[in-house]
Amino acid sequence: MHTFALALFNIWLHITAKQAAALSTKPFIPSYLFMTKIFTLTSLGLLLGSQVFAGGYQVSIQGQKQIGMGHTGTAIAWDASSIFFNPGSLGFLKKSSVVAGASFIRASTAYVGNDGQSYKAETDNPLGTPFAAYGAFFVDKNKKIVVGLGANTPFGSTTKWDDNWKGADQLRSLKLQTIVTYATVAYRVHEKVSVGAGFNYAFGSVDLKRRASSLYNGTTYADVQLKGPASGMGFNVGLHLAPTQKLSVGITYRSQIDMKVENGDATLNNAPKIVLDGNTFPISGATKFNATLPLPAVTAVGIAYKATEALTVAIDVNFVQWSAYKELKFDFVDNFNASKSTASPRKYKDSFIYRVGTNYAVNNMIDVRAGGYFDQTPVQNGYMTPETPDANRVGLTLGAGIKPIENLSIDASLLFIMGQKRTQSAADAQSAGTQDAVQPGTYQQRAFAPGIQVSYQF
Length: 458
Known about the structure:
458 residues, mainly beta, Porin, 24 strands
């Protein structure tokens, strides 16, 4: 599930590049239009990629046990965290449970210029601390009906480049906060079959800053700050099958969510007076915007096999329907280039994430885990940005759990993500129509995320 940010950002680049060229006869205005609209779209997109994105990286952090196993979990009924991984699995829980945990993400993006690798830069991101909390409760004496409530923070970190780095016109800093809540019901219809369904509500905020080096007021460069709220609703359904005592199969679907942005603030600071002419753009240098932005639907299929009494092996495949993004429309309160709305077509390709993990029970008290995954990028050449220079990623995981007393489990995980090096060439950007908006160069992403959680059954 790649960040929706890059999808939205890249769509907008195609429009703004053409608009900037068309307005090239007006002093300052092309840069202002170009930057304000791009900032708007970038901030919203980064905010709304609400499943597993954190600080410019796709980081799966919804359960520490699952993280240790390559973030598999579609076919495993461990505890209340199945609210996210597969609501159908809740019916196979043996007891009610509560789970609370957090990860500590240290992520960075390295950049090398295309001019003989003489220029280098790297983000200086603070520590991100996303959390997850779930509760699953049996509501009937036969233990066939389970009600689940949960929340997690797929965002909660900051991406920060040096204020004067080469790509400061694309991004200086980005602070994100997002919470997704879940309400779920599961029913075990047969000793080998359970189904579940849930309602999801997502909300969050964003604070983005970027330099406008082409707008110089005689003392300092202008800059743009965007702050905006967003919210949306969706659903998930799941099926869990246990045809034998050793084999389990899970299928789950998380729907597309249309995130609504209302009354977002876009502010241009330190702009020359000629830009704020009150005709094409608001004279105050600020305006409001509304938009409805889709998040892709995700289908996950998983298999778990108990090879021995101690060893469990799991495989998951996630299918992300990025091809759903056909058009993006924005409505502005004030005129932007004498227009209060704009729309752009865009074609994205669907992508897959392949996951594998193992759990080994050393004894009745200690479990150890290991896993990994390969995450395909849906982003085409010419659309990488400093916000999300997306590429194929490999994730490696380790984990362990201990049960110090009956019904209590303490689990820890360690996740390392390495993105493949990917070069954004000027030719690629020109072919995509984004040459005036992206920063050509070679990017590589890394993320390191230890985590811990406590779960209790009753």
